[in-house]
Amino acid sequence: MLQPQEAQILAPVLNFFPTPKPPNKTLSFHRISALVITFFAYASFHASRKPSSIVKSVLGPSKSAQVSLEETGWAPFNGPDGTHRLGELDLAFLTSYALGMYFAGHVGDRIDLRLFLVFGMMGSGLLTVVFGFGYWFSVHLLVYYIAVQILCGLFQSIGWPCVVSVVGNWFGKEKRGLIMGLWNSHTSVGNIVGSVVAAAVLEFGWGWSFVLPGLLLIFVGVFVFLFLVVRPEDLGFEAPAKEVEMHEEKAENEEVGLLGVESSDSLEAIGFLQAWRLPGVAPFAFCLFFSKLVAYTFLYWLPFYLRHTGVAGKQLSHKTAGILSIIFDFGGVLGGILAGLISDLIEARAVTSVAFLLLSIPSLILYRAYGSLSMVSNIALMFLSGLLVNAPYSLITTAVAADLGTQDSIKGNSRALATVTAIIDGTGSVGAALGPLLAGYISTRGWNSVFLMLIGSILLAALLLICVAKIEIQQKLNEGKWVWNGMTSQ
């Protein structure tokens, strides 16, 4: 066992209470602790992002005659261009988030990850609360809400590189599979918790929908400050083999794929244009652009859509619409698991992605046409849509990024892996920022137009992978096995 690092870098609880330290607790105990703590940390980040989608139906204009004068929206979002401005709010957050991600990873490499993560959590939580204060202080300035969203996006960008770096420190390239699959569900769990909390208190004033998730993030930040141990070396344990490939295991959500651990090898970093020319990178990157565009449009606009379309001829309350929207996230969890499982069994990522993309087109048509007939049809079709829409998005940001970043031509070059992953996830994040903005503008022409945009995006995503899928099928045929029986030809 190594000697522990300086005591001041340890979490305060471990400094004052020696019981959790070795030899009282094993390496396995602390690995599980790191997984659990980072899981809740990133889930709380996502929970604090959900209020903006839940309160859209309250802030924006209403076209329903059943709405009272007290519920006609909140200036500056309740005018004829209200949905445009709500879309601009999403754009402000997602753009600053994507840009901040590039810098956050490099900063996290150079300072204490625990303190940097806590800094991001505290800043994000505080700014989420500040956004909610606009309700009690009757703030009706668009620049106020835009500025808060920009700053909040920058603080939120700190979360992902930090939690992935911590998990990478503890596990290296080990322990993939089920454990990491469960850990990757933090995005959906956070979305669900944020939706439920924000919707539950919406009737007391939309400000509470921001304040409570913000306070939750701050509370979890305190927990992280007290308990998180960044590296096994800090407790005297041997460090696992540090391989940046750990960073490819991200599911979600989310976001630009910037890795928080720098390479220790001596290979020269691959050029940006050279990385684009690697087989499969460009098709999957642009496919993720359109796939993430669709997924994030639902993430930010589904509660608003449910509120304004109604179910079984009845208009849903803001609270009911917000809670009902989590069904889409539940479907996404199952979709991500199924896509990963199927692609492993048939050994064909592009074929799996194309299949889910094409199946999602009729599911969206059915949801738009029949989702409002009854609550049962709405829930069933929403779950199916979430499963099919999120499956390829989840697969590309995890297994596909790992495959492309470790192909033979660049194998062992962790800097090349970082560049490839950044290209794929970064391109997807541009789509994630564009989708909600377009939905805000197009929705003024009717929801059929929005669904046409989503279906068109999915079709383009599938077409971008057709050639790659054909290559995979041909390879299977050349190997003497069909795509669907790859599971039996090990």
TrEMBL record:
InterPro entries: MFS, MFS_dom, MFS_trans_sf, Sugar_P_transporter. It is found in: Membrane. GO terms for molecular function: transmembrane transporter activity. Keywords: Membrane, Sugar transport, Transmembrane, Transmembrane helix, Transport. Residues 36-474 form the Major facilitator superfamily (MFS) profile domain. GO terms for biological process: phosphate ion homeostasis. It is a multi-pass membrane protein. PROSITE patterns: MFS. GO terms for cellular component: endoplasmic reticulum membrane. Its main location: membrane. It comes from the Eukaryota. The chain crosses the membrane at residues 28-47, 115-137, 143-171, 183-202, 208-230, 281-302, 322-343, 350-367, 379-404, 416-438, 450-471. Belongs to the major facilitator superfamily. Organophosphate:Pi antiporter (OPA) (TC 2.A.1.4) family. This is Major facilitator superfamily (MFS) profile domain-containing protein. It comes from Acer yangbiense.
